[in-house]
Write a structure and sequence with these properties.
This protein is an all-beta fold. Helices cover 0% and strands 22% of the residues. The protein has one domain. The strands form 2 sheets. A two-stranded antiparallel ribbon has the order 1-2. A two-stranded antiparallel sheet has the order 3-4.
C-alpha cells in the first residue's frame, strides 16, 4: 500500500489495520469513528476505533 494518502490529523500505530499508512503512523481515512465497549467508559482501554478493518494477510 505504497499509495497511501496519510491523513495528518489521524495518528495511528495499528499496522494490522487496512487504513494504516505502512511507512507512517497515520490513518488514510478522512475521518474515523471512536466508540466504546463499556457502559461507563472511564479509561483509555475502554474506547475502540470502530473504523478498524483488518488488513489482508498478504504482507511482505
Amino acid at each position: 500500500m505504497d499509495s497511501c494518502s496519510a491523513n495528518r490529523s489521524i495518528r495511528c500505530s495499528v499496522k494490522q489495520c487496512r487504513h494504516h499508512c505502512e511507512n507512517q503512523d497515520y490513518c488514510s481515512l478522512e475521518s474515523i469513528k471512536v466508540g466504546t465497549h463499556e457502559s461507563n467508559p472511564t479509561m483509555t482501554e475502554c474506547t475502540d476505533c470502530e473504523s478498524f478493518a483488518v488488513r489482508s494477510s498478504v504482507q511482505g
